[in-house]
Amino acid sequence: MNFSEYFINNRSLTAVLPFAEELSLEKNKNYLFDLSYLSSLKVIGERAEEFLQGQISCDVHKVSASTIQQGASCNLKGRVLALFDVLNWQGFQLILANDLLAATEHSLSKTAMLSRVKLEQNRDYQIYGFYLTNPKDLLPANNPLPSTPLALNSTEQSCCYSLDKQFYILLIKKDQSASLIQPFIEHQQFRGSLAWHQLQLTHKRIQIYPDTRGIFLPHRIDLHLSGHLSFDKGCYKGQEIVARTHYRATLKHGLKLFIIETTETLSAGKKLFALDNEAEVGELIDYCPLTSNRYLVAVSILFEHPSQVLIESQTKVICLEAMGN
């Protein structure tokens, strides 16, 4: 299948149809999405669970053959290096963006060697997203959907896990993928990763990019509300900073969604400034185009913030149109 490419912070996302049609989804229809921007990092060894428990932000002891967890890796300053899903299907795996795979492997590799754990990039599977709005409409063949959030169902050939009651991720062996996607193609219910990105962003599921790796503190992107952080487990890299922020700091920022219009190029990680005194009021975390010059943006911004801002290195005033925060 031929895909068009769209770039968000230099990350290549795919589209099946012309832009306007790609982002237009019919109500009461289910859709399958190409997520070829995602890949898997396998963690191999008898001590894989113990190793991950000491490295990442979620409680890996809660991961099982039927349950996943969502987590983050942080640097020693407590800033987020990557977000991923942690599953134990055919061994422990981290599902994350391709363009963060090598950097994540490198940041974990020294401790992995000391823990007698091997890290291995795994490209044996195709990864898809599924959006459920109608249980009576088209469903993924031979991939029963889990009934509860973070639950996982699996076979030898594939696995499917839920993000919530509408969104699911499927990993399937490459030689089996054609039979999965063909019915959705025939019914015009197959889309690329750009449409998936827009859907996820409307639910405040943001992405970390190579350009924003190591910039954001977890609380600035609401990871304390999304389930990515465990405050009951032991230490992990950056944990002291994360815990101090959670228990001792007064939070002043929250993750909010806005619609903006601009003709200038957006870049995640840019700071937002007030017009009157040029004080910093937030940061641009993630974005997705909606129409020409119109964008859905996720920003970490002061709870009490102006309705107009300037974006770092830009001169045009940006009006923040609230979207269901």
TrEMBL record:
SUPFAM superfamilies: Folate-binding domain. GO terms for biological process: iron-sulfur cluster assembly. It comes from the Bacteria. This is Glycine cleavage T protein.
